[in-house]
Design brief:
By secondary structure, the chain is α+β, with helices and mostly antiparallel strands. The chain has one domain: L-fuculose-1-phosphate Aldolase (3-Layer(aba) Sandwich). Helices cover 43% and strands 12% of the residues. The chain contains 10 helices and 8 strands. The protein has an 8-stranded mixed beta sheet with strand order 4-3-2-1-5-8-7-6, with helices on both faces. The radius of gyration is 18 Å and the shape is globular. The protein starts with a helix and ends in a 6-residue tail after the last helix.
Length: 270
């Protein structure tokens, strides 16, 4: 049995640095306009990160960032621009009714708008949402089940993700609202035969959860091909989720990849 003392100790030693300091906190900004610039830069970089990991595919996939100045608007990628080529100047600002109000591109993914706008409307705490037609996430979604706690990565989502099992084709009509409803208060939803959507307080957090869920899906599919994966017990899975499934850890988790892409591809800031 894991005691409260053991849980506290485990949480305390998860991050250990000289001086006993903890992880950097979520970023803060002097003005909303400064926050907007930072968020757009992270959003452009996030697309490049997904491309670097093979998660760019045709015209499918989208990441959104709620505008901190106009909170009923969000930034999103234009339709038809590969993730690997997206720059800050490519991003499109969309009002919650679907009207494009800023950006040099005139078309966005309609299904992406339907889903992301519904999520942003339903969740005031969500400032970013991520989705792509990634190989493992999409493959796992065809099983019509939640992610079992078979690995540390999978435990990040234990009790903190949902299943939308009513696939109704491309997201038109009320499909986006149904997905947002299925997501509820969780940080991820597996949409049967479609793929995975993840959300976060920041772009970094939402994208890191997406990449971690993709890894968990890959692990499950590989382990299942070799045999029957053993599930981690409820108590340990719950503890692990508390250890590594928190927003600040999700945000910080993308830092190595974010630092790399900004250093190697500074043109994304254009």
């Amino acid at each position: 049995m894991i005691t409260d003392e053991a849980e506290s100790h485990a949480l305390g030693v998860l991050v250990h640095r000289k001086g006993g300091t903890t992880l950097p906190s979520m970023p803060t900004f002097p003005t909303r306009h400064t926050e907007r610039i930072h968020g757009k830069q992270r959003l452009a970089a996030a697309f490049r990160i997904l491309a670097l990991h093979g998660m760019s595919y045709g015209v499918g996939g989208h990441i959104t960032y709620r505008d901190p100045v106009l909170i009923d608007h969000f930034w999103v990628n234009p339709l038809g621009v590969d993730f690997s080529r997206i720059c800050v100047s490519d991003l499109v600002l969309v009002r919650d009714d679907g009207t494009i109000v800023e950006g040099r591109h005139s078309i966005i993914n309609g299904a992406g708008y339907a889903i992301h706008s519904s999520i942003h409307k339903a969740r005031a705490d969500v400032n970013a949402a991520a989705h792509s037609h990634s190989i493992y996430g999409t493959s796992f979604s065809t099983l019509g089940r939640k992610m079992p706690p078979i690995s540390q990565e999978a435990c990040s989502f234990y009790g903190d993700h949902e299943l939308y099992a009513e696939y109704g084709g491309a997201a038109v009509g009320t499909e986006g609202e149904c997905i947002a409803t299925a997501l509820a208060r969780a940080k991820a939803v597996i949409c049967q035969s479609h793929g995975v959507f993840t959300v976060g307080h920041t772009v970094d957090e939402a994208v890191f959860w997406f990449m971690r869920m993709e890894r968990a899906c890959q692990q499950f599919l590989l382990a299942s091909a070799a045999g029957k994966p053993l599930e981690i017990d409820h108590e340990t899975a719950t503890l692990t989720q508390k250890q590594i499934g928190k927003p600040d850890l999700g945000h910080f988790g993308l830092s190595p990849m974010m630092t790399r892409i900004l250093a190697e591809q500074p043109d994304l800031l254009e």
